[in-house]
Amino acid sequence: MSTNNTINLKNRPKGRPSLDDFDITTSEIPEVQEGELLLGAKYVSVDPYLRGRMSDAPSYVPPFELNKPIKSGVVAEVLESKNDAFAKGEFVVGELAWKEQQVVKGDGLMKVDPDQAALSAYLGVLGMTGLTAYHGLMEIGRPVKGETLIVSGAAGAVGSIVGQIGKTLGMQVVGIAGSDEKVEMLKSQFGFDEVINYKTTENMTEAIAEACPNGVDVYFDNVGGEISDAVLFNINKFSRTINCGAISVYNNTEAPKSMSVQPFLVKKSSLMQGFIVTDYADKNKEAIQQLSEWLQQEKLHYTETIKEGFKQIPQAFLDLFEGKNKGKMIVKL
Amino acid sequence: MSTNNTINLKNRPKGRPSLDDFDITTSEIPEVQEGELLLGAKYVSVDPYLRGRMSDAPSYVPPFELNKPIKSGVVAEVLESKNDAFAKGEFVVGELAWKEQQVVKGDGLMKVDPDQAALSAYLGVLGMTGLTAYHGLMEIGRPVKGETLIVSGAAGAVGSIVGQIGKTLGMQVVGIAGSDEKVEMLKSQFGFDEVINYKTTENMTEAIAEACPNGVDVYFDNVGGEISDAVLFNINKFSRTINCGAISVYNNTEAPKSMSVQPFLVKKSSLMQGFIVTDYADKNKEAIQQLSEWLQQEKLHYTETIKEGFKQIPQAFLDLFEGKNKGKMIVKL
To answer: Where is the Enoyl reductase (ER) domain (chains A, B) (predicted)?
Structure first.
């Protein structure tokens, strides 16, 4: 096989992305030069944050270029190697192009062991997703046993891990999710104490008050918008909000409006802080060690939504914005 | 003199308070019992946060009771004492009722020295105002030499001290204020590098970008609302916003709307945190020591707007919401 499919960014989406914003091209695979290796993609991660990189507004990561491949977390097999650090047949994870096969130099790749955990886990609970949950909760949330943790986007990849870490640390854990099926899953599989279905709940402020009789000490926020407004009415003195994402407003073309948070923060001596997982890269090693330990102790469980086939990547990405995933959304090749 | 004026809360204000919400009653002064002392008010502090205590919504401090005296920071002279801890002729500061004279037990009073600083300073730069500026900036803002600090409500009591502390620490300091006179005062008397008059500026976002060419690292926010929205567009990665007050929305009867802050905090790994000065009471001693030292070194200057006469207290309070004060607003008896 010497030709190869690539998914490129065709247009910068206005508002919600659509399939028209992507196109698939074929190209030759270049020869592997000294120091390089040829990778075959096995698992491709699609994540809400990629939406930001499709716009050219300044953000925490540079935007994707038009008519160039999109990149995300990928687990790949080494198909051929002229780089001493990697051998044929090994598996690696890293930020790679949406290509079936690609030749790279090997910078920034981490080897992963398929015997220690499923390969797809390195895109999730032992990868960026798990690290995002862990660093956000530990560094900003500063969780305390007995406190109440509420998680929005609880059935998402990060949210479900956050809730389980909270339970492992002895917190009261409440989730917010968008279907009865997700509610059931979070309670039965992931051990959440209470879960609120925001789509069928009329008064979220009251529902949160009921689910959190001692108020909210830590809020892990993946969504922003009206759900976060409702949480604000229930925060405790010295509470901490982790701003991990704001998926509910990512597709707004104008700066979205919400309730003013400032008066709540003043009244409650409360903290809100955003982050990106790379802010805490110096603590990744201890985090992965802790997450692996919990995984082996079966304190952490994870769910994946796996789509099959390279050409399904754009649709899998679009499905994120309709909440069609349970846990980490991954495309398997 | 055995009768005595008191200012009571007559109505809980709806929206902006008015003179009708207060009334003045006279009463006898009770006899001083063993352990008590009689105080004569000398300087009374009026502060925006008192507005919150006039509502009965839950807040960080309990609400004032209807038809009972309002309380705030007061410097008083000991007129008579049957308490060994205080002698006639000494001066004290504490939270006291809006009464010309009152009999108290002495709990929570701190003695002040009229030879070390003007008595009114103990309501301002060496009192709650100075401590609010100091603790907020140091504990939440974590200022670093060379960084850019922007202060809203810069000509207010807290704001003008915050800016001067920033300059003392080697920061680039930009203020936001509401009149050309205040702009001039902040530059010439308080050493602000740049000051923006928000009332005459059409595009605040651009004006802030111009005044802060390196972006905003620390934002000391006294106002909330649209001014804070404009600052958000200019925050740097890892910036810190101190939510000290939100005077622009205190009189709203409905939960006010502003731009969603969450996407900005996520993009910039940025922090916002509210506080009240008592959160850091364990650090008051070192703070007063540092503030006194800077005052003696003439690194801190302060402005007061002093009204005369007990019955002027309600009007002085109302004037705060029209920005009629420069620096700390105080009523002298």
So the answer is: 17-331
Among residues B261, B278, B295, which one ends one of the domains? B278
Residue B47 lies in a domain: yes
Tens-digit pLDDT profile for chain A (333 aa)? 457 999 999 999 988 999 999 999 999 999 999 999 999 999 999 998 899 899 987 666 789 999 999 999 999 999 999 999 999 999 999 999 999 999 999 988 988 888 778 899 999 899 988 999 999 999 999 999 999 999 999 998 899 999 999 999 999 999 999 999 999 999 999 999 999 999 999 999 999 999 999 999 999 999 998 999 999 999 999 999 999 987 776 666 666 788 899 999 999 999 999 999 999 999 988 898 899 889 989 999 988 899 999 999 999 999 998 888 877 899 999
Range of the domain at A207: 129-278
Number of domains in chain B: 2
Starting at the edge strand found earlier in the chain, the sheet holding B216-221 runs A194-197, A172-177, A148-152, A216-221, A235-243, A271-274, B271-274, B235-243, B216-221, B148-152, B172-177, B194-197
B264 neighbourhood in chain A, CB within 8 Å: 274
Nearest residue to B89 (alpha-carbon basis) of B113, B54, B72: B113
Q: Do A273 and B276 touch (CB under 8 A)?
A: no
Q: Assess whether A89 and A176 both reside in one domain.
A: no
Q: In this complex, which of B59, B256, B266 lies closest to A243 when CB atoms are compared?
A: B266
CB B189: neighbour CB atoms within 10 A?
Answer: 15
Q: What is the domain-level CATH number for residue A12? A: 3.90.180.10
A257 chain-B contacts, CB cut-off 8 A: 257-260
